[in-house]
Amino acid sequence: MKKISLLLILSFVAVLFAACGKFCLEKCPKNIKPIDWENYNSVYDVFYNYYRLCSEQRYEDSEKTIMVSGWLYRLWGGYFILRNIPNHTNEDSEFPSIQLLIYGIEKEFIAKIDTCDLTKKCFVKGELIFGCAEAGLCSTSAPLIIIKNVDDIYFE
Question: Is pLDDT at 64 greater than 70 in this prediction?
Answer without folding.
Answer: yes
